[in-house]
Design goal:
Blueprint: H1 2-30, H2 39-48, E1 50-57, E2 70-83, E3 95-107, H3 115-140, H4 148-162, E4 165-177, E5 186-200, E6 215-231, E7 249-263, E8 277-291, H5 292-313, H6 327-339, H7 349-370, H8 377-389, H9 392-420, H10 434-439, H11 458-475, H12 482-485, E9 490-507, E10 512-531, E11 536-550, E12 561-563
Parallel strand pairs: 3-4, 8-9
Antiparallel strand pairs: 1-2, 2-3, 4-5, 5-6, 6-7, 7-8, 9-10, 10-11, 11-12
Helix pairs in contact: 1-2, 7-8, 7-9
């Protein structure tokens, strides 16, 4: 009976532990954007190995944290399913399936923008960056006694993230706008037939996933992506009727495949032969076409986004009344916006002393937070007020100073504890142990560069000398993040087999589209290397052939083909590029 009770208690603890992980993942990654997540459904689904939710409405304020001039009108997720492999949590994939995702968006009006909302968004953005830096610091500076539970949770969650499979189908995003161009309302839509992301082996074959030792592989596929732009939508209330209409496509259905590799090593990658993240993006065929009206709409949207970004900077000066109600306030608003950069208050001794006092208070309170000590309520208010008034750069500097001091305190405590346990001699040197004996067998000349090849070219010697100089400079830097110490952080390879771009003229009276220009190209390859250590970006572009045809005057012009590659032999033009005016692509 006692053995049965022990087994039952272990199973109950395991299910409770698994339920907390699933609930935490759903609440933090999905619950921020979706309503009506039931804890009872999650608990019942975990016992069955499957959690399934239906008709989840998306929150109206889901887009506020992204700080975009777009608001969510309606949104829902038809079906969300999570399959949990209860018998093999670390080796078998967790499968997330979603379908029938519909979003209807609209422009954010000027009257809906306020300084409080912008200030709140900026504060949340600063907090997210600071939390990420603090989590990275805590992960590398935990005591062994305090990090056992966190390590076990992190190991399980890391295995789930690396082995997760995503399958999303029938995604429809609609943007309805009758404000940007009042005389020409339009309807912009994006449809995705299927989105899948699976973990694979080094041969890009999906299956049972084993915890990676150094590199993780992900295969991402997007099927039937299309973008359309319809003009003269009747009203917002008829947005569901757009599914029955024939859309004017900007981008015809496209199939995109991405092969993603990520190096999981904890050491900085100091050679350019390896990259932290490698992505091979391939597209078979892409066809773009837009009319003169659509081009005017797109240009207006870009100008509106630029105006929104500029208005965010001066929104704290913006009066709440309209121009007709208080024209004087609006003239003062224009004056303050123009002279804000020129008229700045010079710092006085009073302001400098006040800033220094706030820095001391902020550092002392943040030290308590890092040591897992709860500050007093008045200290929490002071801490929040300082974070609201300071910039992100200032807060990062202050936090980095506190982290370095706390790290030194933790190291001193560990040394003292080790001395008490007899691991360190009275003179401060570590005693000889089995670990030191094993370390003595490691060659001291090991480095990230292969030493076996004795024949090094002059270019490689020069490159190695440059890297040695960069190593010295990087050692003096206070930024210890891996993405800034890697020789190559991102290696992106984009390949497009065939593409076309067509400009058309749309006559609204007769609803006739007339072709003007057609651009055809093939064998497009683009490579981008981001090198943070040397602070450079390398580009490599290759284009097989390019043709530019004049379709407006193809019958009367003596040169219907404006641009074409130089042909070595007669009639050597590929058959795929037809210059006939009846064929647009």
């Amino acid at each position: 009976i006692q053995q049965y009770l022990n087994t039952a208690s272990i199973r109950y603890a395991a299910m409770w532990y698994l339920e907390n992980i699933v609930t935490w993942v759903l609440n933090n990654y999905i619950g921020e954007y979706v309503d009506n997540i039931s804890s009872s459904q999650i608990s019942l689904g975990i016992l069955q190995g499957c959690v399934e939710l239906h008709n989840l409405p998306i929150k109206k304020d889901a887009l506020k944290k992204f700080d975009v001039p777009i608001q969510l009108i309606t949104g829902s997720i038809g079906r969300l399913r999570l399959e949990i492999p209860l018998r093999a949590l670390k080796t078998h994939p967790w499968v997330v399936t979603a379908s029938d995702i519909e979003l209807t968006l609209g422009p954010l009006l000027d009257c809906q923008r306020s300084a409080d909302v912008v200030q709140k968004v900026n504060y949340e953005t600063k907090q997210s960056v600071l939390r990420r830096i603090e989590n990275e610091w805590r992960l590398t500076n935990q005591r062994a006694s305090d990090s056992v539970n966190t390590w076990s949770v992190s190991a399980v969650v890391a295995g789930i993230v690396h082995n997760i499979q995503l399958d999303v189908s029938n995604i429809q995003i609609r943007y309805l706008d009758n404000v940007t161009i009042p005389d020409c309302p339009f309807f912009l839509g994006l449809q995705v037939g299927c989105l899948s992301a699976v973990s694979t082996d080094n041969q890009w074959q999906s299956g049972v996933y084993i915890q990676p030792s150094s590199i993780s592989f992900k295969l991402i596929e997007l099927v039937d992506i299309l973008l359309y732009l319809d003009v003269c939508v009747p009203s917002r209330s008829h947005h569901h009727q757009s599914d029955k209409l024939e859309h004017t496509h900007l981008i015809a259905p496209v199939h995109v495949t991405a092969k993603l590799q990520r190096d999981l090593s904890n050491q900085a990658l100091k050679t350019r032969s390896k990259a932290r993240v490698s992505c091979d993006l391939s597209v078979q065929n892409i066809s773009l076409s837009f009319t003169d009206i659509q081009y005017h709409i797109i240009a207006s949207l870009v100008k509106e986004i630029e105006r929104y970004q500029a208005s965010r900077r001066y929104i704290h000066h913006r009066p709440e009344s309209t121009v007709h109600q208080a024209p004087k306030d609006w003239w003062n608003f224009a004056k303050n916006c123009l002279f804000e950069d020129f008229v700045k208050q010079r710092p006085s001794w009073t302001s400098v002393i006040r800033s220094a006092s706030e820095n001391v208070q902020y550092c002392s309170i943040y030290r308590l937070i890092l040591l897992d000590k709860k500050p007093m309520p008045y200290e929490e208010k002071i801490f929040k007020d300082i974070e609201s008034s300071r910039t992100l750069t200032e807060l990062k500097i202050l936090r980095t100073l506190v982290m370095s001091k706390v790290e030194d305190e933790i190291n001193k405590e560990d040394v003292t504890a080790s001395a008490g346990n007899g691991l360190i001699n009275s003179n401060g040197k570590a005693k000889q142990s089995w670990a030191n004996y094993l370390y003595s067998w490691v060659p001291s000349g090991w480095s990230t560069i292969d030493q076996s090849d004795s024949s090094v070219s002059a270019d490689n010697k020069q490159y190695i000398e440059e890297e040695e100089v960069i190593d010295v400079l990087e050692s003096l830097s206070t930024d210890n993040s891996m993405k800034h110490k890697d020789a190559v952080f991102l290696r992106l390879n984009f390949s497009l087999i065939r593409g076309s771009l067509t400009l058309l003229q749309h006559k609204l009276v007769s609803n006739v589209f007339k072709s003007v220009l057609c651009l055809n190209f093939d064998d497009l390859n683009l490579a981008v290397h981001i090198r943070p250590r040397s602070r450079t970006v390398a580009y490599l572009l290759h284009l097989g052939s390019l043709y530019l045809n004049d379709l407006l005057a193809s019958t009367t012009s003596a040169f219907p083909t404006l641009v074409s590659p130089k042909l070595r032999a007669k009639n050597s033009e590929p058959a795929s590029h037809n210059t006939d005016s009846n064929h647009l692509f």
